[in-house]
Amino acid sequence: MTDITLLIVDDHPVVRDGLRGMFAAEGSGFRVLGEAPDGVRGVELALELDPDVVLMDLRMPGGGGVDAIAALARHGARSRVLVLTTYDTDTDTLPAIEAGATGYLLKDAPREELFAAVRAAAEGRTVLSPAVASRLVTAVRAPAAPPADTTLSAREAEILALVARGTANRAIAAELFISEATVKTHLTHIYGKLGVKDRAAAVAAGYDRGILGRS
């Protein structure tokens, strides 16, 4: 099995060293391609090294994580971003997810939970710590302006279920024999009906409302 490649972006050298050592353990299945002390350098290295997953801290002098996540999304980077931070406030959590982070994990997570989260992120699956998932559910329970029609069509529910499994738009289009543009149109309608702004929040809302079952 091919190792999952990683880029570590954190302003604390001790944290970077610790993570590198953890992922370098024999037989772990991970390979660290590089490290960056801030978001600006992290974006440069991510575009240069093309890792499978970027472990991104949020609050860093010289360039924060949210701006870096948004920059990678604008550049169309293949890398998935897994936020790894000590902060779980609304002012940190929601902007990171909205910017395009695949997952959000706290630094006190056990080693095996971190490994599992990285593997899931590499596969495109949304990974949220329980505290962050709770905040997202709270946010989608009380949207600012609930849309008139909140019922998903059968096709929209089908697409949301594929999104929950981490399926990319192109793969969804191929599986359902529709164009990628049609998938994006359906996603826009799903976001509007659920009162959310992105894939991760849509999945959280889907579970909260019983569309995807119960988490």
UniProtKB/TrEMBL annotation:
This is DNA-binding response regulator. Keywords: DNA-binding, Phosphoprotein, Transcription, Transcription regulation. Residues 145-210 form the HTH luxR-type domain. Residues 5-122 form the Response regulatory domain. GO terms for molecular function: DNA binding. The modification 4-aspartylphosphate is found at residue 57. GO terms for biological process: phosphorelay signal transduction system; regulation of DNA-templated transcription. Pfam families: GerE, Response_reg. The lineage of its organism: Bacteria, Bacillati, Actinomycetota, Actinomycetes, Kitasatosporales.
